[in-house]
Amino acid sequence: MKKAHVIVNIAVMGWNLALLPEEERDQEIQSLNITKGIEIDDSSNKVFRELISSFVERKLEYFDEFDIFISDFKLEESNDEIRLSVVSLV
């Protein structure tokens, strides 16, 4: 469940970044670094930025008409299923 939470967190970050104007979005993505006390090198941060960028691209390709900011989410596990609930700002 912890891995699912991390993946959804990254996806939400990509979704919300996709709502920014392109120039601002690119600046924000370039400023991202992995933290949380993990020993990271520059190549890991580059891979992280590429992953975020791929989520941004997917949001723009498949859900471009939705301009709703996701402010929070909750994952619940029930009967071998993971359910996602989101809180959004309109």
What does this 3D model show about the protein?
With 90 residues, the protein is of the alpha+beta class. It has one domain (2-89). The protein contains three helices and two strands, in the order αααββ. It has helices at 2-18, 22-31, 42-62, and strands spanning 69-78, 81-89. It has a two-stranded antiparallel ribbon. α1 crosses α3 (42-62). It is globular and about 40 Å long.
List keywords for this structure.
single chain, 90 residues, alpha+beta, two-stranded antiparallel sheet, 3 helices, 2 strands, 53% helix, 21% strand
Task: Kindly state the number of beta strands.
Answer: 2
Span between N and C termini? Answer: 29 Å
Overall domain count: 1
- Average pLDDT for all residues: 87
Number of helices: 3
Largest β-sheet summary: 2 strands, antiparallel
The poorly predicted ranges are none
Question: What sequence of helices (H) and strands (E) makes up the elements?
Answer: HHHEE
As a percent range, the share of strand residues is 15-25%
- Residues in helices, as a percent range: 40-55%
Which structural class do you get from the secondary structure elements? alpha+beta
| Strands in their spatial order, largest beta sheet | 1-2
- Compute the gyration radius: what is it? 14 Å
State the shape: globular
